[in-house]
Design goal:
Blueprint (H helix, E strand, L loop, with lengths): L16 H13 L3 H10 L4 E2 H8 L3 H13 L3 E6 L2 E6 L3 H13 L14
Antiparallel strand pairs: 1-3, 2-3
Helix pairs in contact: 2-3, 3-4
Length: about 120
């Protein structure tokens, strides 16, 4: 996977078309409340797939589809341990972005930061 350059405050690095497409894939994967609930649950560490349907508030088959979308977007990874599958976040900075949204919604002034957190 090719990564675009990271801009520092004051510089104007234009992302490549490939980078824009990749970013759109990630935002699309995050574009469902059930998937966001899963991402937040994984923010605390690994979670068994058997618990994620409850977290997402949906049937196990729907949770499985949500997990597939998140995995294909590269946001989560899974590991089988016997009969169980455990999921973890591979891009935890999405939770930082979610927190930024919460702060803006609460009327807080947020600072613009450019950090290469998932390198």
């Amino acid at each position: 996977m090719q990564r675009s350059a990271i801009a520092t405050p004051g510089s104007a690095v234009k992302p490549t078309k490939m980078a824009l497409k990749r970013q759109a894939e990630v935002f699309k994967a995050l574009g469902h409340p059930g998937r966001m609930a899963i991402v937040h649950a994984l923010g605390g560490g690994e979670v068994c797939a058997c618990d994620l349907a409850t977290v997402a508030g949906c049937a196990a088959s729907t949770a499985s589809r949500h997990l597939t979308v998140l995995r294909h977007a590269g946001l989560i990874a899974d590991e089988r341990r016997g009969q169980q599958i455990f999921y973890r976040l591979t891009c935890p900075c999405v939770l930082t972005f979610a927190e930024c949204i919460n702060r803006v919604d609460a009327g807080e002034k947020v600072q613009t930061l450019r950090v290469a957190c998932c390198a």
